[in-house]
Design the sequence.
């Protein structure tokens, strides 16, 4: 290989490797979206506190489930922002930091997918519970409930398949690794 070809190949490889930084604005955008969720959470919490003296238990439960939903979505955002940045853009260098998330030390694309799928199941569960509590109210008919159950079971099935695939691929990787590594 000539020096000119090797230089062009190295330049292309460097450009491709640097392109991972194009994802950084996406993660910054997700941080802004998380700020919107924090704002929404605070507004809903103040509404709940303001109505606390004269609302029924069912409305309290639905509002609290809505707040839990916001928290779970915020947790999902954190997993995507921190895990995605660490996996695809650059190391965060948090080793030894007292607040380093436990899961971050062993995160990879497969683990991140399973964690995201699990978070989606939790969010779907909250929505399904809110729907069950609201049965009989306008917009909550049998077909709506059925479709939410179908979507929820699809999330559960997908998460199980992702976890199984990740498990099989990690076992295969260990088995095919040369001895002594």
Sequence:
């Amino acid at each position: 290989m000539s020096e000119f070809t090797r230089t062009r190949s190295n330049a292309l490889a460097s450009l491709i490797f640097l392109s991972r930084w194009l994802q950084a604005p996406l993660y910054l955008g997700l941080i802004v979206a998380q700020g919107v969720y924090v704002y929404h959470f605070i507004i809903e919490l103040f509404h709940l506190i303001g109505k606390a003296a004269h609302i029924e238990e069912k409305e309290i439960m639905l509002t609290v489930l809505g707040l839990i939903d916001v928290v779970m979505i915020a947790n999902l955002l954190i997993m995507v922002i921190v895990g995605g940045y660490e996996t695809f853009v650059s190391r965060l260098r948090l080793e030894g930091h007292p607040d380093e998330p436990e899961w971050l030390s062993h995160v990879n694309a497969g683990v991140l997918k399973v964690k995201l799928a699990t978070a989606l199941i939790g969010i779907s569960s909250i929505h399904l519970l809110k729907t069950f509590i609201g049965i009989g109210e306008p917009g909550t008919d049998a077909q709506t409930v059925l479709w939410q159950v179908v979507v929820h079971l699809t999330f559960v099935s997908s998460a199980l398949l992702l976890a199984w695939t990740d498990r099989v691929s990690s076992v295969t990787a260990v088995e095919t690794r040369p001895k002594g590594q």
Summary: The longest helix spans residues 142-176. The radius of gyration is 22 Å. The mean pLDDT is 85.
